[in-house]
Amino acid sequence: MIDTLTLSDINIDATPLCATNHLDLFLTNLATLLRVDTLYVATVCPESFDLSMLSCLQQGVFVPNAEIDFKSMPCFAAYQRGYAEYEQDLALRFPDQKLLQKWQAQAYLGIRLNDVSGQPIGVLSVFFPRQLSKHKLELNLIRLVSSFLEKELQLKERVTLPSAITTFDPPAELSAYTLWLEDNIAKGRLSSWSYFLEQDRLVCSDSAASIIETDNVEQIDKLEALLALVHKSDKASVFRDFQNAIESNSTTSIRSIFNIRTLQGNSKRIQSDIYPIVNESGLVYRLDCISKDITAEELTKKRASAQERILETVLATTPVGLIKLNAKREIKWVNKQACKMFGYELEDFHRLREKGVLNTSSLNLYFDEDIEQFEEYYQEIYANKRNNFTLNTRYRHRNGSILWTKLTVTAVKDDVNNIQYFINTIQDLTEEQDNRQRLSIIESMYKHSAEGIMLCGSNGKIIDVNPAFEVITGYSAEDAIGHTHDLLRSGVHDEAFYNGISEALLNNNEWKGVIWSRNRAGEIFAQQVTLSSIKEGGRLKYFFAVFTDVTEEKKTDQQIISQSNFDTLTGLPNRQYFSAEIRQVIDRSAKHGQKFAILYIDIDDFKSVNNSEDFMAGDRLLQETAERLKYRSRENDFLARIDGDEFAFIIPEVVNKRQAEVYAKQLQGVFAQAYQLSNQQRYVTASVGITMYPEDGVSVEALMQSAEQAIFEAKRKGRNQCVTFTQELSDAAILKHQTVVELADAIKRGSLDVYYQPIVDNVTGKIDKVEALVRWNHQDRGFISPAEFIPLAEEGGLIQGLGEYVLDQACCDLKILHEAGYPYIEMSVNRSSLEFKTVDMQVSEWLKVISSHNLPYSSVTMEITESLLMDMDGQYMQRINALKSAGVKIAIDDFGTGYSSLNYLRSLPADIVKIDRSFIINIPENQQDNLLLDGIITIVHNLGMKVVTEGVETKAQLNYLQEKKCDYSQGFLLCRPIPLHELLEFLSKNESVF
What we know:
alpha+beta; six-stranded antiparallel beta sheet
């Protein structure tokens, strides 16, 4: 097992260093983390190799202008080679260096510091009073801080020039960084490992256990064991990265990003930086790696796309005119209200844009005498003198009349301050009604903004906050209002920092920058903040803050894992902590011959709470549930939150299952009292699953698995149930496994059936397409639903084989249809995300199947789901483009059931969009559903794609779809899925289905 640096090992008194400059303070913190008392940072002249000391700590004391014989010290090797390490006997290796004996230095680590162009500018040297740890954690830690020191050295070069201007605040940045770094190391969030090539030996840090989810990290002692965790689709690229690192014979790191399945069976996305370590002969003999779990970050991106879709809807339906212009001020997008203001239909803008460049001049919207004023403001934006402007102005209506408006133009820029596009917000001032609309819009934007907003009085007390503030900080509006903004102070910034902000608000009415704050859970996070003041009579009346959480970006920059043993929402232990506690309780119970119970508590129908209440209601319910359960629990009970709506108890010293069931009923009683959510009371119930040690298992895995089977059965029985694990439940799990085995055999033997459901042209009634649907008629169990066996195929790794079977059979039957006199019929075949991940980049496997039946590629359509859109990357797009290039059509299946964004749809070269049946259940009776369906059809048609509506079951639905120009219909009204021979008979009798 690898030793891990912890703050409990710190024994250096840094108090005398508090008055030093910021670089000295940073070295003090680094010395504390490394448990050393001698280190220094210096610049090096590349011509003369003269050493210029920036900060030097010698035996716990800073020595200004310290003189070091650079060329005869180990730091010279670090500068020459990029890094240097001497694990032990340092004084014996450099016998002439009396300083090393004076410092009692036994080991050395050094790393060269480079500028942005990769040229050497300095060196960081650390001298250890002990030999280095066997896994080189110290070297990995130095690598992490070297990039920050490189920025510091380059900053010092800039500030020596009289003309240099910088807004960098080194003390605050350094303090924030070291506080954050110290916090992560203290919590064991760094994960590293070393691989020794000659011995084929892998040594992992303790914190690596949290990533791969094991309590015995020593079992991962071979590279082969580590690679076994890598997802099979990533194995080749990961192995290639390792080979490149081994064969590079250089110190340049290689980044590898891949998926793993942990020892607990969970999927994770990992980012690893691999550092080749070379010997004195310049050959790689060891690989060091720093790994980071980026699963949460990618989930955040997916959630952001869902928020983007909501924002698009808000912008499209807002009662304010919105026009999006590109950097050249060509019109790229307008909403309906803008069209209405100027007397156009939305289709008019689309038609005019197709004819050529569309801008305000080509539409003749401006009056000639007003153009100069517009141009002046735009030129100031181009010159970075302003970012927006607002003015009352007039436009020319389509009918020639004057439209008086209030116009706000805002430039949206990228990270390097280049204009991406302009957003023009136009408010019609011709009617008094617009005043109320304007207030409604502001309130809507305030509530739905993804940025946190906080309004404070001149005394600093919080007056109001928006929902995004609650999400980002963890403080509800009730918690925050009435308190001062000091509620968020983290201790990172000193009083002078906040005084500077106050001065900027008084003098300039605005302040922008990064503030490190502390959320309700006690975690430090970074805010990108814009503060603005509101004055009356020249005196500050109010000020408001608009901010976003940029912690993830900061973490990405520093490449450090963020993990914890506690749930941030409730403060309870999480699943990882819970599993570790079970292991300890097992050890104690086995030693003393005692029993204990594990209870899983799952809130019934929790999803409906978030669907029917405001989006914070679910969090409040979970927090209150945690408090109720803590109040009801006994002193020795262990309570954790192990999943979204799932809590768990370890109940020690339980004699039998009956006693556990009585206690479970008492815990269910905490839900008897109503919850106050938003402005109404709500009653909820919970289901409980019970398992006992040692009857139901003697390992963590067995006990948690039996508890999960018990809670699954409780949920299956209905609400407010309590189920104790039995052997019958285990038998059900065995049946599931047996089903997977039999499905594999059915695929191998070709005993599955493929049925076909017609897709009908809504104009002619002619069957132009059919969709292939797999069916399984089990010899003992009869027909098994695809909803049951297809998920099992995905879980059991059978989906690729199943997909190959269905594609081949569908192509075979399509050839029969063509030869039977229906050469125009096309075949639609469903493709899962897993199949897209594993097929070759040129999709030659699929194309080969089609061509083997002498079919034109254009006669086959591949249907993909919205989930694939969310995971879309360059490799997916390459495969889709390969299909399109060959002539295969692409269809988006079940559109509208996931988190699709129009941006995804617009960027995908699809031919067909299939609208899910849930959108037409209530048409044409429900006007709101009608409008939504109309909008989707219009958008898809505008993107040049065809529309198929699934689930058509009534004549009224079909008539409505025909009226709205939907291209195709599919559903039981027209024809159920049928085998090939019935399809041929159906076609012969129905030239037109209508």
